[in-house]
Design brief:
single chain, mainly alpha, 20 helices, 74% helix, globular
Length: 468
């Protein structure tokens, strides 16, 4: 284990230095490469290193290295060029202003003397939100080359297949990878979280019936299932836009592989999201007949599961819809707590007072299984409104880029970004989903890239109208 951990550390340091060198030289696309290549393995990497060296300091270095890469790259972008940052030609769009407004709101609440959380806890919590703003503006100022984007897509396809193989191996062997690597010891000492559930990990690793849910190499099954929405969107893009029959067969197989991963992760929210993503993807690509046949097929599957499957499956469906399922009931309780807090404190009760992010003391937090309510509890109703408008503006602009663009590469960016953010809406209602570092930071980076493309289309249209 020590040899493996040492080898992984060596490769990680070398990889990080190479990425930083490229980013510092003015290639911000390498930040996206860092996100897609490292963050899926972020937690598992820490677990391996911790259990090899039994040293929390090394784990902390890994955690803060990610923050250093993002923050130092952003600071260098601001001050590291000959042209003054304030003299650069950059026109703020509506979405830019909304995101800046949200970040300013976070900054105000960072210094407001509200809540029981310590200032250090607020700094740690707000840092996670500022990272979203950083990757968004990096994406906003990145000029993707076709070969860069194709490389990212290939990595995503590789991750989707590899994660399925790992989860399938877990299922075949009847043991979680996290149990084998010592996740419980890591979680207890590093995060001060006691082992929970029948598998000694945490409750997210099992379903209502205590059957295992697998996470592959992600932090937990919830993060795995949220990432599957991104993988599914990528595979759907290729399936709907492949020109040759053999390519369609290859990508149909990829869709089926990802569907298998959804079943191994057993996340009802993400499975439902994938169905909605499929319908929206077929709609915006004008595959109307397929929508009808696909909807009938999904309905038949639901009827089969409800009337002809085992009683356990039928009860799970009934309990989920009626909120009698333990997990669903838990969500409902957390939502009620959050709503009551917002009703009583419409301007919020302070940062780090809700959710499951680092910096939040679980003994004082209120609510935590709904990203919208988490922001609302802490920063009031205005934060919920801003966040909702940002999400829907991101989705709308992405779909417009897909529809308007004549470039297949740009169309793919709009399609994948719009459908991924749309698919993540359901998990946002049931979890602190912006904590899923890989899919959250990756998708916000793409939102920034889409906004750049969207504004270029709008500018070209305006110039065309003025010329006419």
């Amino acid at each position: 284990m020590i040899f493996l951990a040492s080898l992984l550390l060596f490769f990680y340091v070398a990889f990080t230095l190479i990425m930083l060198d490229k980013i510092y030289k003015g290639n911000p696309v390498y930040l996206l490469l860092y996100i897609v290549s490292f963050l899926p393995f972020y937690t598992i990497f820490q677990v391996i290193v911790f259990n090899a060296f039994e040293n929390t300091f090394v784990v902390s270095l890994i955690k803060y290295s990610k923050d250093f890469v993002l923050l130092s790259s952003f600071i260098l972008y601001i001050i590291g060029t000959r042209e003054s940052f304030f003299n650069r030609s950059f026109k703020f769009s509506i979405l830019d202003k909304l995101i800046v407004s949200f970040l300013c709101l976070v900054l105000v609440y960072l210094f407001l003397p509200l809540g029981e959380a310590t200032f250090i806890s607020k700094v740690i919590y707000s840092k996670n939100i500022f990272l979203i703003g950083i990757v968004y503006f990096f994406g906003r100022n990145t000029d993707f080359k076709t070969y860069n984007w194709n490389t990212i897509l290939k990595i995503l396809i590789g991750l989707s297949v590899f994660s399925f193989l790992v989860a399938l191996s877990e299922n075949t062997l009847g043991n979680h990878l996290h149990s084998f690597l010592g996740f419980s010891e890591y979680n207890l000492i590093v995060n001060d979280i006691d082992p929970q559930g029948n598998y000694g990990l945490n409750w997210s690793f099992e379903s209502q019936s205590a059957s295992p849910r697998y996470a592959a190499f992600f932090a937990d099954p919830l993060e795995f299932s949220a990432s599957l929405i991104l993988f599914f969107t990528v595979s759907l893009w290729f399936l709907l836009h492949s020109k040759f029959r053999e390519n369609k067969f290859y990508y149909l197989l990829l869709v089926l592989i990802i569907a298998g991963s959804f079943l191994l992760a057993i996340s009802r929210a993400s499975i439902f999201s994938a169905i909605l993503v499929l319908i929206l993807g077929l709609y915006i690509s004008k595959n109307y007949k397929t929508i009808i046949s696909g909807s009938v097929f999904i309905l038949l599957i639901f009827i089969y599961l409800y009337f002809f499957s085992e009683e356990e499956t039928r009860y799970l469906i009934e309990d989920t819809l009626s909120f009698q399922n333990t997990s669903s009931l838990g969500h409902l309780v957390e939502w009620i707590e959050g709503l009551l807090s917002i009703y009583e404190n419409p301007f919020g009760i302070g940062l780090a007072m809700s959710g499951n992010a680092s910096g939040v003391d679980q003994s004082i937090k209120i609510g935590g299984e709904n990203q919208f309510l988490i922001y609302g509890v802490q920063m009031g109703v205005i934060s919920i409104l801003l966040y909702i408008i940002i999400l829907f503006k991101s989705i709308w602009n992405s779909i417009r880029v897909y529809i308007k663009s004549s470039s297949l590469s740009k169309k793919s960016i709009g399609f994948i970004t719009g459908l991924t953010k749309f698919g993540l809406l359901i998990p946002l209602f049931t979890a602190n989903a912006e904590l899923y570092l890989f899919v959250a930071l990756f998708s916000w980076y793409l939102v920034g890239q889409v906004e750049s493309l969207y504004n270029s289309f709008e500018l070209n249209n305006k110039l065309k109208i003025e010329k006419d």
